[in-house]
Amino acid sequence: MICPYCNKEMEIGYIDQTDFRFPLEWYPANRGTGFFVSKKRNVRLTYGGNVKAHRCENCKKIIIDESTLST
Q1: Mean pLDDT throughout 4-24?
Q2: Is 64 inside a domain boundary?
Q3: What is the total count of domains within the chain?
Q4: Per the domain annotation, does 61 fall within a domain?
Q5: Distances (CA, A) of 33 to 46, 53, 65
Q6: Over the stretch 23-55, which tens digit does the pLDDT of each residue have?
Q7: pTM (whole model) above 0.85
Q8: What is the pLDDT of residue 37?
Q9: Does any domain span residue 8?
Q10: Which domain covers residue 56, as residue numbers?
């Protein structure tokens, strides 16, 4: 997917919360599987609060500005 702001290729990934005790995170699609999966590229989205996001009703895309995330 091309970024609507900078026109560069965007990286595919997933937003998931593997267990309610862990934060909601984005992780790359090619991160691998198994017990010893590298998490260095994961992006923590929330610790149970909410995440500010913009959604386009027309194209059905949601964009989260990573710089607005609280850690």
Answers
A1: 83
A2: yes
A3: 1
A4: yes
A5: 23, 28, 27
A6: 888 888 877 666 666 666 778 887 767 788 888
A7: no
A8: 62
A9: no
A10: 13-68
